[in-house]
# Entry
Amino acid sequence: AWPGAAPEEPQLATTWDPFAVVVYIPLVDLHGDNGATEFLIGSHRDGTDANIVGALTACSQDRLVSSAGLDAGDVVIFDCRTCHRGLLNT
# Structure
């Protein structure tokens, strides 16, 4: 996300058959204020509709995981159907 960008809503539908993974390698250390990514645990299996505006903000907080705290070069691999969004980048 660009500096000053608002949080994004989820980008991917979860009704697809599994076919791909996403490999996410941050090029800088990630903190809560520089555009970390937020993931909804289990959304690739439970049919959460990522296209519904607010799907992540309306869910239970204990299902959300953020990439904040990752160091540059760390690797995150996730199913492409997993609901995720970019957080505020200040």
Summary: DSSP finds one helix and five strands in the chain. The helical segments are 43-46. The two ends are 10 Å apart (CA to CA). The first strand starts at residue 21 and ends at 24.
